[in-house]
Specification:
Helices cover about 45% and strands about 15% of the residues. The chain is α/β, with parallel strands linked by helices and about 475 residues long. Bound molecules: adenosine monophosphate and zinc ion (ZN). Adenosine monophosphate (AMP) binds next to helix 1 and strand 10.
Length: about 475
């Protein structure tokens, strides 16, 4: 498999450290607000990478952090504490904010068929690991203490500028405009590992440490969680391109200083989703979430389809016009598949040919638009039986995850209202011990293709 490695700036043949097993780390969300569809583009790309590797026969161990400490989203003492700001806005504790938005994030992922990684860990759960790492970095002279805080000395790092490809001289000119000056640092690009003295004096999340009560710096959570759950050698580390500098650069510096050897071989970055004004962000323009798209009548999987039609390393510009075209194309594609005859009639002929084509698309730096073209090619191929087409599409959809074979299970509002009223009526009948009526309602719905599911707390339903 060929992947573009940001570290070496070239397409490279992927070889994991351990045959057949891939250790993969992906930076997770900061849970102070909903994810916007730009963030979700990055998670779609990572999902395809994970599933693509699995399709090729690798066993993928994937770990992701959840950043639940707001001030960790910026270096040193700069920026704002986003968790605290949301807690004040919503009159909740920072822990409640983290719970709520972590949950919302995984609900969005679920709508987009993004699989939850094997291990998902909150940043605040691993303070002991960060302390252990920081202690060693201090002992070995990579870090220093200054006015109550601990900083990493970037001048001690090996090849600090390799990942970003930045020129230190340019950086030092830029730094004056982009980073608020922290007088405790030796070099402007040194970064905080532990803070006891900070402008975020009123924040709720603080822990004891050998250097006093405080909180960790932004980058150490990913180095710490990766080390704890994936060990000393990582195959793949992903994120959006904005993570390259300083976040991933600093992760490499501290992890390699701590471990004493090279840490991760392949750094794979997804390009941004832009709007007409540039990079999509939570603070400017319309705050585009998956729920908002749904309210406007879009199927989340049409957004996934929209993303997969362009390569993850190309910028993608979002507009409602292009999403409309994607949704139309997606619906047409699903309709074509729906019309295929499902009578079992599998022909081996050409199965391997198409599977090889599909593998080659994965191996070619995750060429997702080619993967979709292969689906169209299969539909057009008169030498394939309908059942063989369905077989192949179902197989490829393990990677694409566009719900191509599933029947459309969405119901319109009127039907939803009818079902909910029937469920209420049945719940009442059960309460009144009128089981005959309850069963009758259940059977009536079942006859209409709606299956009632009795949960512990509430009754739900499924379209069959
Ligand atoms: P955050 O929750 O801000 O830490 O971001 C989560 C992920 O979304 C990171 O991997 C970012 O690199 C990525 N990201 C942020 N903005 C965009 C964007 N406009 N398009 C694609 N990915 C993005
Ligand atoms: Zn990270």
């Amino acid at each position: 498999m060929k992947l573009y490695n940001t570290l070496t700036k070239q397409l490279e043949t992927f070889t994991p450290n351990e045959k057949n097993t891939v250790r993969m780390y992906t930076c997770g969300p900061t849970v102070y607000h909903y994810a916007h569809i730009g963030n979700l583009r990055t998670y779609i790309f990572e999902d395809i990478l994970e599933k693509g590797l699995e399709y090729l026969g690798y066993n993928v161990l994937r770990v992701m952090n959840v950043t639940d400490v707001g001030h960790l989203t910026n270096d040193s003492d700069t920026g704002e504490d986003k968790m605290q700001k949301s807690a004040i806005r919503e009159q909740k504790s920072v822990y409640e904010i983290a719970d709520f938005y972590e949950n919302a994030f995984f609900l969005d992922c679920n709508k987009l068929n993004i699989r939850k990684p094997n291990v998902v860990e909150r940043a605040t759960k691993h303070i002991d690991t960060y302390i252990l790492m920081i202690k060693k970095l201090l002992d070995e002279g990579y870090a220093y203490q200054s006015n109550g805080n601990i900083y990493f000395d970037v001048s001690k790092a090996n090849n600090y500028y390799q990942l970003s490809g930045k020129n230190p001289k340019d950086l030092f000119v830029g730094v004056r405009e982009t980073v608020e000056e922290d007088k405790n640092k030796r070099n402007p690009y040194d970064f905080g590992l532990w803070f006891t003295v900070s402008k975020f004096s009123n924040q709720e999340m603080k822990w004891d440490s050998p250097w006093g009560v405080g909180y960790p710096g932004w980058h150490i959570e990913c180095s710490g969680i990766s080390y704890k759950f994936l060990g000393e050698y990582l195959d793949i580390h992903c994120g959006g391109v904005d993570n390259i500098f300083p976040h991933h650069t600093n992760e490499i510096a501290q992890s390699e200083a701590f471990l004493g050897h090279k840490w991760c071989n392949y750094w794979i970055h997804g390009e941004h989703l832009n709007d007409s004004q540039g990079k999509m962000s939570k603070s400017k323009g319309e705050f585009l979430t998956i729920s908002l798209l749904e309210e406007k009548g879009y199927n989340p999987l049409a957004y996934r389809f929209f993303c997969l039609n362009s390569h993850y390393r190309n910028q993608l510009v979002f507009s409602y016009e292009s999403l409309n075209s994607a949704q139309n194309a997606y619906n047409k594609l699903k309709n074509k598949i729906k019309k295929l005859d499902r009578t079992p009639n599998l022909h081996d002929k050409k199965i391997d040919y198409y599977k090889d084509k599909f593998k080659t698309a994965i191996e070619n730096d995750l060429n997702t638009s080619l993967m979709i073209t292969i689906i169209y090619d299969i539909l057009k191929d008169s030498e394939l039986t309908d059942f063989t087409k369905l077989y192949l599409i179902a197989d490829f959809d393990k990677v694409l995850s566009l719900g191509l074979i599933e029947e459309d299970k969405t119901v319109d509002e009127e039907i939803e209202l009818m079902i909910m009223n029937k469920i209420k009526e049945r719940d009442l009948a059960k309460k009144e011990k009128n089981y005959e009526k309850a069963d009758q309602i259940r059977n009536e719905l079942f006859a209409r293709g709606i299956k009632i599911i009795d949960g512990k707390e509430k009754t739900t339903y499924e379209i069959i």
